[in-house]
């Protein structure tokens, strides 16, 4: 269980943030000098060097989003120009990619960051450049919303790249592209000019995920643990009936892959902030599982967000860095593994620092939401938990200070069941490597905390 440091503040982490942001700049430009875009997209490191791993092109936005975050934190114009030029020249195929559920990863990280920076006044405003970013975000949100499987009872979901039968927990974090597209006044046009609401599809997806990918410990879920998350849910496309839990990257459908849990925590927390910002009138004519008012959706999803956040806190070692799956088969060989800091060099099961990078932001955002809405005690608990995780993540043995290593955060794993992760010759499990999503989210977390210390809170959407 995480030992939450209730005395920690963003200001206390200043030196850690400064070091991580400085290292991020070095790593960004080191990779830029080496990597040839025509090779594809870097995914994770092997022996300290970023390499390819074909599955889907879901990490390119993180590669070009990192320099934009670095500019946000430092004002470094070289970072801005690298991120902006790469976005304009290389990211267009992601806007109309109909085969993936990853639009919120790729396009919010690039076009979305550029749009946010311009709206915040950190980039000089140019009408046509602004229109370019807005159009990109509108298109991406609509294309993502079109990847849709309809279910009975007015539910449905954005299906994963596995196909229309497959709902991934990951997509909760990718939903933010629908949010921004809706915020820009856009919608999806269907057959016979049917006008399809993006906010309605966002809410339907979030509720379908809530019902079928998250266990609530009562009623239908009384056999399971409150707050546990499953990676994938499978549906019968002939009837729309739910069939079974599944997983691609976790140990089993009946254990929790911690990066999937992280996507859920961060995704629901971000969407709570977004829903809270919307006007009540935006929920008119929406009726999902008996919910039709803004406060009903917020109350419902807040309960879910707290359940999964509490599960993470209870099932993660004291320093806040999780092992790759809560049910990984050899965890029992690590004596009292939840009562001490995680050991990335153990002989039995790998940790996943990328899950910590994602979750820490979710915990902080959940805490900020609760504090803003009158529950300061609970809010401070989650903020402190997120900062506790960040403190561990931004220090050894997780921060990568070796100038020859291209990664920023060490001890990330990609696909343990497929055996894709590098195991050093003197180790028995994967360790010592980085991932593009882990590095991006660590930097995004650092920028968020830095801006909190400056009283300049950051959202993915524009207020």
What is the global morphology? globular
Strand order of the largest sheet: 5-8-9
The third-level CATH topology is Glycosyltransferase
Strand % is: 5-15%
Helix % is: 40-55%
Unreliable stretches covering 5 or more consecutive residues: none
CATH architecture: Alpha/alpha barrel
**Tally of structural domains:** 1
SSE order and pairing:
Elements: H1 14-34, E1 44-46, E2 49-51, H2 60-74, H3 77-90, H4 92-95, H5 103-119, H6 127-146, E3 148-151, E4 155-158, E5 166-168, H7 171-174, H8 176-183, E6 188-189, E7 195-196, H9 198-212, E8 232-235, E9 242-246, H10 258-277, H11 294-314, H12 353-372, H13 376-393, H14 436-453
Please give a structural write-up:
It is a single chain. The chain has 14 helices and 9 strands. Helix 1 packs antiparallel against helix 14, helix 2 packs antiparallel against helix 3 and helix 8 packs antiparallel against helix 9. A hairpin with a 3-residue loop joins strand 3 and strand 4. It is mainly alpha-helical and 463 residues long. It has one domain: Glycosyltransferase (Alpha/alpha barrel).
Distinctive features:
463 residues, mainly alpha, Glycosyltransferase, three-stranded antiparallel β-sheet, 14 helices, globular
Give a short synopsis of this structure.
This protein has 463 residues and is mostly helical. Helix content is 46%, strand content 6%.
């Amino acid at each position: 269980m995480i030992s939450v440091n209730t005395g920690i503040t963003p200001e206390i982490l200043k030196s850690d943030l400064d070091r991580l942001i400085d290292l991020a700049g070095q790593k960004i430009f080191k990779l830029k000098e080496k990597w040839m875009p025509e090779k594809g997209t870097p995914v994770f490191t092997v022996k300290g060097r970023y390499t390819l791993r074909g599955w889907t092109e879901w990490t390119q936005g993180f590669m070009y989003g990192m320099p934009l975050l670095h500019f946000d934190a430092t004002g470094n114009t070289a970072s801005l120009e690298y991120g902006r030029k790469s976005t304009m020249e290389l990211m267009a195929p992601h806007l109309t990619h109909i085969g993936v559920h990853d639009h919120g990863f790729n396009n919010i990280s690039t076009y979305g960051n550029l749009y946010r920076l311009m709206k915040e006044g950190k980039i000089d405003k140019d009408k046509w450049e602004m229109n370019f970013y807005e159009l990109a975000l509108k298109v991406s949100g609509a294309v993502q919303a079109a990847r849709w499987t309809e279910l009975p009872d007015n539910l449905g979901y954005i299906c994963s790249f596995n196909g229309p039968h497959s709902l991934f927990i990951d997509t909760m974090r990718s939903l933010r592209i629908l949010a921004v597209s809706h915020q820009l006044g856009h919608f999806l046009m269907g057959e016979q000019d049917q006008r399809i609401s993006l906010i309605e599809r966002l809410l339907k997806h979030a509720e379908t995920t809530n019902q079928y990918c998250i266990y609530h410990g009562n009623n239908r879920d009384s056999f399971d643990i409150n707050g546990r998350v499953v990676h994938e849910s499978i549906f019968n496309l002939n009837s729309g009936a739910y069939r079974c839990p599944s997983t691609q990257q976790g140990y089993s459908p009946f254990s929790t892959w911690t990066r999937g849990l992280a996507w859920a925590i961060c995704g629901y927390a971000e969407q709570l902030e977004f829903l809270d910002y919307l006007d009540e009138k935006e929920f008119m004519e929406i009726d999902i599982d008996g919910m039709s008012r803004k406060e009903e959706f917020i109350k419902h999803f807040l309960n879910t967000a707290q359940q999964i956040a509490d599960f993470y806190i209870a099932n993660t070692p004291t320093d806040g860095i999780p092992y790759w799956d809560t049910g990984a088969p050899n965890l029992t060989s690590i004596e009292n593994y939840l009562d001490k800091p995680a050991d990335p060099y153990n002989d039995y099961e790998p940790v996943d620092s990328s899950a910590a990078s994602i979750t820490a932001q979710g915990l902080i955002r959940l805490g900020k939401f609760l504090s803003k809405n009158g529950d300061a005690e609970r809010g401070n608990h989650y903020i402190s938990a997120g900062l506790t995780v960040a403190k561990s993540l931004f220090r050894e043995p997780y921060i990568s200070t070796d100038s020859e290593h291209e990664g920023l955060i060490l001890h990330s794993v990609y696909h343990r069941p497929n055996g894709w992760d590098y195991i050093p010759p003197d180790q028995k499990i994967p360790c010592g490597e980085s991932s593009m999503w882990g590095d991006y989210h660590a930097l995004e977390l650092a920028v968020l905390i830095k801006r909190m210390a400056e009283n300049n809170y950051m959202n993915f959407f524009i207020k």
